[in-house]
């Protein structure tokens, strides 16, 4: 087998209604009860109707199993399909000019006063209709899929008014109908106060108008907020989360990125699926997350892009047993990144995470952060047959290399 071709081959059967077998493979199952990555040599994955029947040693295939199609993997590595569990993928425009201005010495404040920053993305997103948002967002989604992503989370938060927020979420849902990928959507109305808007009135609109509309139309799977000095206070976020709970929506939180306002503990107190960023989280926050089962979502792309210097407390999370997930945080302002492979390298290099932690971070723990671990994220019977087949000799290559895509095949729901 040539492990250095870097080719991308998408297996596309007539449908997912039959049985398929990927054999002669090495598996990283990420399954509980197995050490490390749950590696299996000479393994096989069997699938029926889009669901995994068997993921383990080929010699232990169920008696009498016959596949309609057999794929010889020629010793390649199979992992669960990758999961990008924190993105702001749907927006219009870009912020490349601001990037150029910052390199020339302009401050964030100067850029904001000139109409830049998040305000420029909000203006462009509001001006774009659903079709235009879909058109601009598809290339970003395709870049993720080309690196083995089979599930992606997409937030709103660049509309910051009822109609535009709903349009963002509808566009995100549309992406999931145009590509073979599972899309989960998150309402992030509490992202920022729009320029020229009264803070109290905006928060009221988020809670009393936007959230009920989002829930009534089934446009979001979760609710997020930004708890920070430049965004919303813990008390304001608590009000948003209480409203989300009344509507039956789980929550997650942008927390402790630039300062410690107790965001991690706040997220835990509300049973959040995840707390995200976490550079300034303290031991009390880590312990609270551990007790609540809240996942630490680490975002090295943003850390790198805005030149942060305070590392997230990875050792604290290890000590308290807090699961750690990784994501691109793909967004126009602070992480214009669409490479989960590079995210893993950044997490290892910048945050000193291990190979096993990085791979679990974009599969099993990412699924946990979305509340979808029962559906995907590991290679186990009963789960969706979401796979990534790689031209590598060992799992460490997926974390070690930069600017190299060894994806051989991407499989979503068995096809």
Blueprint of the fold:
Elements: E1 19-28, E2 39-48, E3 51-57, E4 69-72, E5 77-80, E6 82-84, H1 96-103, H2 108-113, H3 118-127, H4 130-145, E7 149-155, H5 162-178, E8 182-190, H6 199-216, E9 222-227, H7 234-246, E10 253-255, H8 263-269, E11 274-277, H9 283-292, E12 295-298, H10 300-305, H11 314-320, E13 324-326, H12 340-351, H13 355-361, H14 364-369, E14 387-390, H15 396-400, E15 407-411
Parallel strand pairs: 1-4, 1-5, 6-7, 7-8, 8-9, 9-10, 10-11, 11-12, 12-13
Antiparallel strand pairs: 1-2, 2-3, 5-14, 14-15
General description of the model:
This protein is α/β, with parallel strands linked by helices and 415 residues long. 36% of the residues lie in helices and 20% in strands. It has an eight-stranded parallel β-sheet. The chain is globular, with a radius of gyration of 21 Å. Residues 1-15 have low confidence and may be disordered.
Euclidean distance between termini CA atoms: 23 Å
The biggest sheet, with number of strands, parallel, antiparallel or mixed sense and barrel status, is: 8 strands, parallel
What oligomeric arrangement do these chains adopt? single chain
Q: How are the strands of the biggest sheet laid out side by side?
A: 6-7-8-9-10-11-12-13
Q: Which residue ranges are poorly predicted, with pLDDT under 50 across at least 5 consecutive positions?
A: 1-15
Shape: globular
Write down the overall mean pLDDT.
Answer: 94
Question: Brief description of this entry?
Answer:
By secondary structure, the protein is of the alpha/beta class.
């Amino acid at each position: 087998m040539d492990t250095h071709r870097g080719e991308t081959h998408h297996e596309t059967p007539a449908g997912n209604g039959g049985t398929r077998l990927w054999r002669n493979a090495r598996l990283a199952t990420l399954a509980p009860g197995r050490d490390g990555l749950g590696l299996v040599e000479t393994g096989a994955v069997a699938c029926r109707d889009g669901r995994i029947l068997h993921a383990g040693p080929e010699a232990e295939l169920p008696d009498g199993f016959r596949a309609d199609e057999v794929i010889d993997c020629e010793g390649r590595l199979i992992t669960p399909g990758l999961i990008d569990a924190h993105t702001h993928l749907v927006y219009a425009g870009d912020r490349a000019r601001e990037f150029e201005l910052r390199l020339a010495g302009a401050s964030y404040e100067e850029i904001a006063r000139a109409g830049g920053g998040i305000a420029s993305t909000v203006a462009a997103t509001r001006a774009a209709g659903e079709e235009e948002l879909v058109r601009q967002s598809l290339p970003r989604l395709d870049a993720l899929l080309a690196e083995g992503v089979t599930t992606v989370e997409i937030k709103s938060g660049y509309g910051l008014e009822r109609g535009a927020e709903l349009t963002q979420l509808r566009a995100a849902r549309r992406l999931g109908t145009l590509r073979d990928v599972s899309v989960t959507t998150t309402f992030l109305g509490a992202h920022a106060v729009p320029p020229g808007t009264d803070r109290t009135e905006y928060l009221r609109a988020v809670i009393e108008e936007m959230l009920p509309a989002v829930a009534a139309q089934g446009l979001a799977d979760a609710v997020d907020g930004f708890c920070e000095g430049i965004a919303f206070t813990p008390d304001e976020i608590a009000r948003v989360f209480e409203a989300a709970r009344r509507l039956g929506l789980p929550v997650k939180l942008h927390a402790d990125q630039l300062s410690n306002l107790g965001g991690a503990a706040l997220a835990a107190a509300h049973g959040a699926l995840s707390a995200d960023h976490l550079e300034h989280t303290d031991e009390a926050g880590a312990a609270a997350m551990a007790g609540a089962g809240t996942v630490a979502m680490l975002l090295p792309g943003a850390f790198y892009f805005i030149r942060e210097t305070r590392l997230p407390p990875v050792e604290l999370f290890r000590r308290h047993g807090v699961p750690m997930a990784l994501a691109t945080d793909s967004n126009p302002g602070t992480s214009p990144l669409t490479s989960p492979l590079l995210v893993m390298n950044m997490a290892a290099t910048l945050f000193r995470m291990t190979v096993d932690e990085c791979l679990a971070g974009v599969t099993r723990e990412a699924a946990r952060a979305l509340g979808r671990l029962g559906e995907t994220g590991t290679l186990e019977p009963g789960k969706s047959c979401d796979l990534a087949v790689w031209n590598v000799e060992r799992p460490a290559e997926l974390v070690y290399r930069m600017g190299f895509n060894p994806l051989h095949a991407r499989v979503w729901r068995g096809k």
